[in-house]
Design a protein that fits this description.
The chain is mainly beta. It is built from 1 helix and 34 strands. About 35% of the residues are buried. The N terminus is likely disordered.
């Protein structure tokens, strides 16, 4: 409940209460100043029921003030909404913390600290409701082991009655960078941004269509583009320079993924079959090898973290279907890195695609329809068991990408009008929207250069 880390709080004759207050502020503002707690009264059937409450502390206009938003996360809306917006400040005359806040319905809270200890702050305040009625509240907030333990009371008659108790933890914050593709400059280009959706950069800057898919841990990116008349695979430096065509073939070569050791690239090509097969080559385009050889459409082949396995999607059609339609019944397969030992993992209605191994190899994320609904991000064990719907979203979800620590998935979310890049935290399932402009932003890839 106070100012930002890095600002000097040294003052002449500073009281112990002020020192305690400022120290608490410093703790609360660390790591982005965001905290969350479970809502024990969450109703999963209710559209406007929050499953988490949030504290969002932001430094104020002077060293002894802090702004606080009290929010709720609504999973069916995939967003945080603000309930209360207030400010804490230090009253030098009375040597107390003063508090003022207004909520979304117009209620006003005003009060001050009743007691300040080393890791504890007690506030007493009046809440004036929109109908003019008034309530008296008392909140006790303790900081223990990097948690906030809050207990609230309401006065009835001359007695304080317990209202609720909650334990708050730091809200997980994503780190690192992502690349994705966007039409915000008129055509599909490869962009990079940080995990907060900031520091955006167009890496390809070309009038052709450029699609992003993978990177090398030395900082280079691999993508494909039609700038030479057909889809070809390119490598470029991290700053977008030195864009070199490494496939150089009149067929369509697409969806490249660099091997974990940086020596090879998986890709899909129609050079030997119109439906496309999985190939691997060295990063200079040499030592080409075809890994699959069948009549099916295959898509989005990627590596396991140790490079020993390949995971991919294959369209399994009904033998009676002689149409020229594109994909129909995609299933997830794995095979050894040399193309041997194919194994089918899914047997579901509809198209399952975009499979990705988790960093530790224990899980697989992919997209597909769930219970005859729309496309969702789905998680299963590496052997195809324990399938569950991660996103549970009314919109369409595609193209999952694991964070390097395995705690987050970046993905595409939207509808026929527009798509954006989102993140979801696997443990809490809290979703964060990273892009918001009206053009298409999609196919994010989490980057980890090490």
């Amino acid at each position: 409940m106070c100012n930002a880390t890095g600002i000097s709080f040294a003052q002449n004759n500073q009281s112990s209460e002020l020192s305690y207050y400022l120290a608490q502020c410093e703790t609360l503002l660390q790591d982005g100043g965001k905290w969350f707690a479970k809502n024990g009264k969450y109703d999963s059937l209710e559209e406007w029921s929050p499953n988490y409450f949030g504290y969002e502390y932001v430094k104020g206009i002077n060293p002894n003030t802090v702004n606080l938003k009290i929010t709720g996360y609504f999973p069916k809306k995939s967003q945080w909404l603000t309930f209360w917006n207030g400010i804490y400040a230090w009253d030098y005359k009375n040597q107390r913390v003063v508090y003022q806040s207004v909520n979304s319905e117009g209620a006003l809270a005003m009060g001050e600290s009743e007691g300040i200890k080393k890791d504890e702050l007690t506030l007493v305040f009046n809440v004036t409701l929109p109908d003019g009625k008034s309530e008296k509240h008392r909140d006790v907030q303790k900081i223990i082991s990097n948690q906030i333990q809050s207990t609230s009371f309401i006065q009835k008659g001359n007695k304080w009655e317990s209202n609720n108790s909650m334990v708050w933890e730091r809200l997980p914050q994503p780190t690192g960078s992502l690349m994705f593709m966007s039409t915000r400059d008129g055509n599909f280009e490869v962009y990079s941004m940080d995990a907060k959706g900031e520091n955006l950069k167009n890496l390809t800057c070309n009038k052709a269509t450029d699609y992003t898919f993978s990177y090398f841990k030395d900082g280079r990116f691999v993508f494909y583009s039609n700038r030479d008349g057909n889809d070809e695979i390119y490598i470029m430096e991290a700053d977008g320079k030195k864009q070199n065509n490494i496939s150089n073939h009149p067929s369509a070569d697409r969806i490249p993924y660099a091997s974990p050791d940086g020596s090879r690239i998986l890709f899909i090509s129609d050079r030997d079959h119109k439906n496309g097969e999985i190939y691997v080559m060295d990063i200079d385009g040499k030592n080409l090898k075809r890994l699959t050889n069948n009549e099916y459409f295959e898509d989005a082949a990627n590596w396991s973290a140790d490079g020993s396995k390949i995971i991919f999607a294959r369209d399994i059609r009904d033998p009676k279907d002689n149409s020229e339609s594109n994909v129909g019944n995609g299933e997830i397969f794995t095979m050894n890195a040399d193309g041997s030992n194919e194994r089918r993992l899914t047997n579901r209605v509809g198209y399952d695609g975009g499979p990705q191994f988790s960093p530790d190899g224990s899980k697989i994320a992919f997209y597909g329809k769930f219970n005859s609904g729309n496309s969702e991000i789905i998680i299963m064990d590496a052997d195809g068991k324990n399938i569950f719907n991660l996103t549970e979203d009314p919109l369409e979800d595609y193209s999952p990408s694991w964070s390097p620590d395995g705690k987050w998935i970046a993905y595409t979310k939207g509808d026929s009008k527009n798509y954006d890049v989102w993140l979801i935290h696997l443990e809490t399932r809290i979703k964060t929207r990273l892009t918001t402009q009206p053009k298409r932003d999609e196919s994010p890839v989490w980057i980890s250069f090490n």
